[in-house]
Specification:
275 residues; alpha/beta; Rossmann fold; 12 helices; 7 strands; 13% strand
Length: 275
Protein backbone atom coordinates (compact mmCIF):
# COMPACT_ATOMS: atom_id res chain seq x y z
CA UNK A 1 0.00 0.00 0.00
CA UNK A 2 1.39 3.40 -1.02
CA UNK A 3 2.37 5.74 1.76
CA UNK A 4 -0.06 8.61 2.14
CA UNK A 5 1.15 12.07 1.18
CA UNK A 6 0.92 14.47 4.12
CA UNK A 7 -0.16 18.01 3.29
CA UNK A 8 0.87 20.74 5.73
CA UNK A 9 -0.24 24.37 5.56
CA UNK A 10 2.11 26.96 7.03
CA UNK A 11 -0.26 29.67 8.18
CA UNK A 12 -0.46 32.71 10.42
CA UNK A 13 -2.74 35.70 9.89
CA UNK A 14 0.00 37.99 11.25
CA UNK A 15 2.72 39.06 8.84
CA UNK A 16 6.37 38.83 9.85
CA UNK A 17 5.97 35.53 11.68
CA UNK A 18 8.66 33.75 9.67
CA UNK A 19 6.00 31.62 8.00
CA UNK A 20 7.48 31.50 4.50
CA UNK A 21 11.05 31.09 5.75
CA UNK A 22 9.95 28.21 7.95
CA UNK A 23 8.06 26.55 5.09
CA UNK A 24 11.04 26.85 2.72
CA UNK A 25 13.64 25.62 5.18
CA UNK A 26 11.58 22.80 6.67
CA UNK A 27 10.79 21.69 3.12
CA UNK A 28 14.44 21.71 2.15
CA UNK A 29 15.44 19.91 5.35
CA UNK A 30 12.88 17.18 4.70
CA UNK A 31 14.26 16.76 1.18
CA UNK A 32 17.78 16.39 2.61
CA UNK A 33 16.34 13.66 4.85
CA UNK A 34 15.38 11.81 1.67
CA UNK A 35 11.71 12.81 1.61
CA UNK A 36 10.13 13.89 -1.67
CA UNK A 37 8.65 17.33 -1.11
CA UNK A 38 6.37 19.59 -3.15
CA UNK A 39 6.17 23.23 -2.08
CA UNK A 40 3.13 25.30 -3.05
CA UNK A 41 3.51 29.09 -3.03
CA UNK A 42 0.07 30.39 -2.11
CA UNK A 43 1.07 34.00 -1.44
CA UNK A 44 1.11 36.89 -3.92
CA UNK A 45 4.37 38.13 -2.37
CA UNK A 46 6.19 35.26 -4.14
CA UNK A 47 8.67 34.84 -1.28
CA UNK A 48 8.53 31.03 -1.22
CA UNK A 49 9.34 30.98 -4.95
CA UNK A 50 12.14 33.50 -4.34
CA UNK A 51 13.63 31.13 -1.77
CA UNK A 52 14.68 28.80 -4.62
CA UNK A 53 14.82 30.86 -7.82
CA UNK A 54 16.21 34.29 -8.67
CA UNK A 55 13.91 37.24 -9.21
CA UNK A 56 13.98 37.07 -13.00
CA UNK A 57 12.91 33.43 -13.03
CA UNK A 58 10.20 34.00 -10.42
CA UNK A 59 8.76 36.90 -12.39
CA UNK A 60 8.74 34.72 -15.51
CA UNK A 61 6.69 32.16 -13.59
CA UNK A 62 4.42 34.89 -12.20
CA UNK A 63 3.74 36.56 -15.55
CA UNK A 64 3.28 33.32 -17.45
CA UNK A 65 0.70 30.57 -17.25
CA UNK A 66 2.66 28.10 -15.13
CA UNK A 67 1.70 29.30 -11.68
CA UNK A 68 -0.85 28.60 -8.97
CA UNK A 69 -3.14 31.51 -9.86
CA UNK A 70 -3.54 30.28 -13.44
CA UNK A 71 -4.34 26.77 -12.24
CA UNK A 72 -6.93 27.91 -9.70
CA UNK A 73 -8.56 30.34 -12.13
CA UNK A 74 -8.97 27.54 -14.68
CA UNK A 75 -9.73 24.94 -11.98
CA UNK A 76 -7.09 22.67 -13.48
CA UNK A 77 -5.13 19.73 -12.17
CA UNK A 78 -1.92 21.05 -10.61
CA UNK A 79 0.14 18.19 -12.05
CA UNK A 80 1.25 20.26 -15.04
CA UNK A 81 2.18 23.29 -12.93
CA UNK A 82 5.03 21.67 -11.01
CA UNK A 83 8.55 23.00 -11.62
CA UNK A 84 11.76 21.38 -10.39
CA UNK A 85 13.96 23.36 -8.03
CA UNK A 86 17.77 23.11 -8.24
CA UNK A 87 17.62 20.62 -5.36
CA UNK A 88 17.01 16.88 -5.37
CA UNK A 89 13.64 15.69 -4.05
CA UNK A 90 12.24 19.24 -3.99
CA UNK A 91 9.64 20.64 -6.42
CA UNK A 92 7.59 23.83 -6.43
CA UNK A 93 4.32 25.22 -7.75
CA UNK A 94 5.16 28.94 -8.06
CA UNK A 95 2.88 31.84 -7.28
CA UNK A 96 1.83 34.99 -9.14
CA UNK A 97 1.29 38.61 -8.14
CA UNK A 98 -2.21 38.12 -9.59
CA UNK A 99 -2.98 36.08 -6.46
CA UNK A 100 -4.15 39.44 -5.09
CA UNK A 101 -7.37 38.75 -7.01
CA UNK A 102 -7.83 35.18 -5.88
CA UNK A 103 -10.71 35.96 -3.52
CA UNK A 104 -12.76 37.32 -6.41
CA UNK A 105 -11.93 34.30 -8.55
CA UNK A 106 -13.06 31.97 -5.78
CA UNK A 107 -16.28 33.89 -5.22
CA UNK A 108 -17.47 33.09 -8.72
CA UNK A 109 -16.85 29.34 -8.53
CA UNK A 110 -18.92 26.36 -7.46
CA UNK A 111 -17.72 24.45 -4.35
CA UNK A 112 -15.00 27.06 -4.01
CA UNK A 113 -13.71 25.78 -0.66
CA UNK A 114 -12.34 22.63 -2.29
CA UNK A 115 -10.79 23.94 -5.52
CA UNK A 116 -7.20 23.54 -4.27
CA UNK A 117 -7.98 20.14 -2.79
CA UNK A 118 -9.31 18.95 -6.13
CA UNK A 119 -6.33 20.41 -7.94
CA UNK A 120 -3.90 18.53 -5.70
CA UNK A 121 -5.77 15.20 -5.81
CA UNK A 122 -3.74 13.60 -8.62
CA UNK A 123 -0.43 14.80 -7.17
CA UNK A 124 -1.34 13.24 -3.85
CA UNK A 125 -2.37 10.00 -5.50
CA UNK A 126 0.35 9.65 -8.14
CA UNK A 127 3.04 12.24 -7.59
CA UNK A 128 5.15 10.18 -5.25
CA UNK A 129 5.50 13.01 -2.73
CA UNK A 130 5.91 12.33 0.96
CA UNK A 131 4.98 15.92 1.80
CA UNK A 132 3.15 18.82 0.21
CA UNK A 133 3.90 22.05 2.08
CA UNK A 134 1.70 25.07 1.33
CA UNK A 135 2.67 28.63 2.20
CA UNK A 136 -0.52 30.54 3.00
CA UNK A 137 -0.82 34.35 2.86
CA UNK A 138 -1.16 36.29 6.16
CA UNK A 139 -4.95 36.60 5.98
CA UNK A 140 -8.04 34.74 7.16
CA UNK A 141 -10.13 34.75 4.00
CA UNK A 142 -11.61 32.29 1.55
CA UNK A 143 -8.26 31.44 -0.03
CA UNK A 144 -6.68 30.48 3.30
CA UNK A 145 -9.79 28.41 4.01
CA UNK A 146 -9.18 26.70 0.66
CA UNK A 147 -5.58 25.95 1.64
CA UNK A 148 -6.60 24.55 5.01
CA UNK A 149 -9.34 22.40 3.48
CA UNK A 150 -6.67 20.88 1.23
CA UNK A 151 -4.37 20.13 4.17
CA UNK A 152 -4.02 17.40 6.78
CA UNK A 153 -2.15 19.63 9.21
CA UNK A 154 -1.42 23.24 10.03
CA UNK A 155 1.95 24.45 11.27
CA UNK A 156 1.70 27.84 12.92
CA UNK A 157 4.96 29.86 13.11
CA UNK A 158 4.88 32.50 15.84
CA UNK A 159 7.46 35.26 16.20
CA UNK A 160 8.98 35.57 19.68
CA UNK A 161 8.26 39.29 20.00
CA UNK A 162 5.86 41.60 21.86
CA UNK A 163 3.53 41.49 18.84
CA UNK A 164 4.11 37.85 17.95
CA UNK A 165 1.02 36.56 19.77
CA UNK A 166 -1.23 39.20 18.25
CA UNK A 167 -4.02 37.42 16.41
CA UNK A 168 -3.15 33.87 17.54
CA UNK A 169 -6.54 33.50 19.24
CA UNK A 170 -8.22 34.58 15.99
CA UNK A 171 -6.17 31.99 14.12
CA UNK A 172 -7.28 29.23 16.49
CA UNK A 173 -10.91 30.32 16.10
CA UNK A 174 -10.56 30.29 12.32
CA UNK A 175 -9.09 26.78 12.44
CA UNK A 176 -12.02 25.58 14.51
CA UNK A 177 -14.43 27.00 11.91
CA UNK A 178 -12.53 25.35 9.04
CA UNK A 179 -12.68 22.02 10.86
CA UNK A 180 -16.45 22.08 10.35
CA UNK A 181 -15.71 21.71 6.62
CA UNK A 182 -12.53 19.64 7.02
CA UNK A 183 -12.89 17.63 10.25
CA UNK A 184 -9.63 15.72 9.67
CA UNK A 185 -7.58 18.92 9.83
CA UNK A 186 -5.22 19.02 12.82
CA UNK A 187 -2.90 21.62 14.28
CA UNK A 188 0.51 19.98 13.99
CA UNK A 189 2.09 22.52 16.28
CA UNK A 190 3.38 26.02 16.92
CA UNK A 191 6.95 26.82 15.90
CA UNK A 192 8.68 29.66 17.73
CA UNK A 193 10.69 31.83 15.31
CA UNK A 194 13.02 34.84 15.58
CA UNK A 195 13.88 34.02 19.19
CA UNK A 196 16.40 36.35 20.82
CA UNK A 197 17.56 34.66 24.02
CA UNK A 198 18.80 38.00 25.37
CA UNK A 199 15.27 39.38 25.56
CA UNK A 200 12.64 38.37 28.08
CA UNK A 201 9.67 38.55 25.71
CA UNK A 202 10.94 35.51 23.85
CA UNK A 203 10.65 33.39 26.97
CA UNK A 204 7.31 35.03 27.75
CA UNK A 205 5.96 34.07 24.32
CA UNK A 206 7.01 30.48 24.90
CA UNK A 207 5.46 30.43 28.36
CA UNK A 208 2.12 31.85 27.15
CA UNK A 209 1.85 29.41 24.25
CA UNK A 210 2.52 26.46 26.52
CA UNK A 211 -0.52 27.44 28.58
CA UNK A 212 -2.78 26.29 25.74
CA UNK A 213 -3.64 22.76 26.82
CA UNK A 214 -4.39 21.33 23.38
CA UNK A 215 -1.61 23.06 21.45
CA UNK A 216 1.73 21.41 20.78
CA UNK A 217 4.71 23.78 20.88
CA UNK A 218 7.67 22.34 19.01
CA UNK A 219 10.81 21.86 21.07
CA UNK A 220 12.93 23.16 18.19
CA UNK A 221 13.15 26.95 18.33
CA UNK A 222 14.41 29.11 15.46
CA UNK A 223 16.64 31.86 16.81
CA UNK A 224 17.59 35.15 15.17
CA UNK A 225 20.39 34.48 12.67
CA UNK A 226 21.75 36.87 10.04
CA UNK A 227 22.64 33.88 7.86
CA UNK A 228 18.92 33.45 7.11
CA UNK A 229 18.80 36.88 5.46
CA UNK A 230 22.00 36.21 3.51
CA UNK A 231 20.54 32.94 2.28
CA UNK A 232 17.33 34.66 1.20
CA UNK A 233 19.37 37.31 -0.62
CA UNK A 234 20.99 34.47 -2.58
CA UNK A 235 17.65 32.67 -3.23
CA UNK A 236 18.72 29.63 -1.25
CA UNK A 237 17.56 27.73 1.85
CA UNK A 238 19.94 28.51 4.69
CA UNK A 239 21.35 24.98 4.82
CA UNK A 240 22.19 25.13 1.10
CA UNK A 241 23.78 28.55 1.60
CA UNK A 242 25.78 27.73 4.71
CA UNK A 243 25.43 24.25 6.15
CA UNK A 244 27.25 25.22 9.36
CA UNK A 245 24.85 28.08 10.18
CA UNK A 246 23.14 27.72 13.53
CA UNK A 247 19.72 28.21 11.95
CA UNK A 248 20.43 25.43 9.43
CA UNK A 249 20.68 22.98 12.32
CA UNK A 250 17.59 24.42 13.98
CA UNK A 251 15.47 24.02 10.86
CA UNK A 252 16.72 20.45 10.48
CA UNK A 253 15.67 19.67 14.06
CA UNK A 254 12.26 21.22 13.42
CA UNK A 255 11.91 19.12 10.25
CA UNK A 256 12.69 16.00 12.27
CA UNK A 257 9.90 16.92 14.70
CA UNK A 258 7.52 17.50 11.78
CA UNK A 259 8.42 14.07 10.39
CA UNK A 260 7.97 12.45 13.79
CA UNK A 261 4.53 13.95 14.39
CA UNK A 262 3.13 13.96 10.84
CA UNK A 263 4.66 10.60 10.04
CA UNK A 264 2.37 8.83 12.50
CA UNK A 265 -1.08 10.32 12.05
CA UNK A 266 -3.18 9.51 15.07
CA UNK A 267 -0.23 9.69 17.46
CA UNK A 268 -0.37 13.45 17.66
CA UNK A 269 -3.87 14.84 17.26
CA UNK A 270 -4.34 18.46 18.32
CA UNK A 271 -7.38 20.58 17.80
CA UNK A 272 -7.29 24.10 16.45
CA UNK A 273 -8.61 25.68 19.62
CA UNK A 274 -7.65 25.85 23.23
CA UNK A 275 -9.27 22.61 24.28
Amino acid sequence: MAKKTKTIAFANNKGGSGKTTTCANVGYSLSVMGKRVLLVDGDMQLNLSLSFFDEEQVLDFAMGERNLYAAVRKEEDLWDYVVHTPYENLDLIPSSTLMSGIEYELFTKWQRETILSRGLARLKAEGGYDYILIDAPPTLGGWVMNILCASDYVLLPVEASPWGLFGVANMFEFLDNVKKLAPELSLLGVAITKMDARKNYGRQTLHILRQYESVNVFESIIRVDSEIEWAQDNSKPVMAYKKSARSAGEYMELAKEVERYAGGRGQHQKSGGQG
